[in-house]
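## Example pair
The file below holds two records. Each record gives the amino-acid sequence first, followed by its structure token line.
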Amino acid sequence: MLRGLNIRQRSLPLRAPFRISRGVKHAADVVSVELEQDGRIGRGESVPYARYGESVASVIEQMETLRDALCAGMGRDALQVRLPAGAARNALDAALWDLEARLSRVPVRAQLARPPLAPLLTALTVVIDTPQRMGEAAARIADAGLIKIKVDAADPAARIEAVRNAAPAAALIVDPNESWTIDILRDVRPVLERTRVALLEQPLPAGADEALLEFSCRIPVCADEACHATPDLAKLRGRYQAVNIKLDKTGGLTEAWRLLHAARAEGFGIMVGCMVCSSLGIAPALELAREADFVDLDGPLWLANDLPGGVSLQGGRLLPPAPGFWG
């Protein structure tokens, strides 16, 4: 069962700057993997994230420690033990799922006992800018069913109101990316309720979210940076009402599938999100997304050029990749 393993990094230019509370991106730096066996190639992709202590170099180094084992036939179960949750495990896990599907000719969705993929309503993101420009950006996608608003600690109320005024019918997700304090959250709460925000994502730093235990609001609060894998659920109770599942946090579809069902069993709402990446990074997440209450998988739509055959947007819905693209 000898395999070939190819690891490479790519920098994918964006069509516009992607600005959130902790900085701005002009390109998506991704690590892609190919596993070859018996003439079949399984592919995966991940996005190293500095917030979690990762870099392209560190992720590739983690992968290289398993080169011999992977080439000798190591599977997904062993991978979960050998690498921690994170970007390195995600890309390898995706490549193994894809390779298994191609070798067995059983699609991933059939292995998960799910029907074929269908178009999904996805959030479209309005990044941080002046309230006027954010309103203008929202007006261009006002017919979208779901809009995600990136904010920071600088006058978030004005930004949220500008988007709501420009897109009166859309459901809204507000994402401060850990930039608020509990005082800001309390101050903004009336605006969140007045503008009918559907979900508030990670308002406080993950290490300071105990303040949420005493916070009450009609808007459900979703854990993002505070939730990586299934063991995190225990500390989220009483603080969050939903969790954002991202493959680069869980370390791949294998653990993400476990987290999805464990979170559901504990009564958490489900959001499936992504980093800014290509459709290769999104494809495994689509298997989770159809089980979610909120889908935020517009990462490839920010690229100047996505991979051929990848996802596309039609009427606010994300269309799956072409047959054979992944899984």
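Second record, same layout:
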Amino acid sequence: MKKYIPFIVLFGIIPWTLPAQKVQHIIKLWQDSICVEYHVEQIDSITFEAIVEPVVGEFSIASNKKVAFAPGNLQYIPASDTWLFAANQYDYIGTRNMAGSTFADTIDLFAWSTDTDPSTAWGVTLEDNNDLFAGNFVDWGTAIDDGNTWRTLTANEWEYLRASRKNAKQLIGIGAVNGTNGIILLPDNWVAPEGITFKSGYSSQEYSYTAFAEHQSFTEEQWNLMQSAGAVFLPCAGFRLGSSLAYMQLGGLYWTASPHAAYGPRFASYFLFMCDGAGVGYDLRSGGNAVRLIKDL
């Protein structure tokens, strides 16, 4: 499987006039703050990639373990076998995951990833035979080759983050960011940027699209300040059942790395939130849910 996440290489073409008036071109490449110069004639090709940095906040997922979140939901481009992260934390693909009865150009709703059958690898499948998903979990993080070690949170880690870390209730709340509904997770040592007020908790309404923005709403500029202070946003990316899509802007279902043994090998656990609450639930493994990876600190 092709693994790809780009890292940035800065360069410039600099004309250099020699005494003989012959013009040569030099390319400067920086890596790890070291500059190396090459004459254009020495270079056959240059590959440009971009280093992906996690969100700066630190989040406790156990009494002795902290993580940082990926900068956006996981995405996949089938045609080029390319894995990447959404450009913004509030981005999600939604109904554009499907082009009729087949996957669209880019997708972000995946079945649970297992090693049972080649057709279920990474969850990039519309297969609804849950017997094909009965094997061991294969972490999406191993598909990202960018120098970071990404992985998927377990169900217990999500629960600790949501409810057991210090001041847990004050560090989570629904809201809308740049017009997108979702849930906001604040880092352990949250300090609100100047001019930002965060309202923790949930709405008293049920199954409501409007309750998120009514609870609190942030512009793109306000969110940039919050993100710089370590805040994480999970959009209401909805879910997929076969080729059918639902729940966009109404709820978020994010896969965990945990099977749900009590209900047999056809089920796995997810982190679920709606306007009125959040917690860990379970679903058939063939269902298409969102994925947000983390990096251990």
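Notes on the second record: DSSP finds three helices and 20 strands in the chain. The chain has a mean pLDDT of 88.
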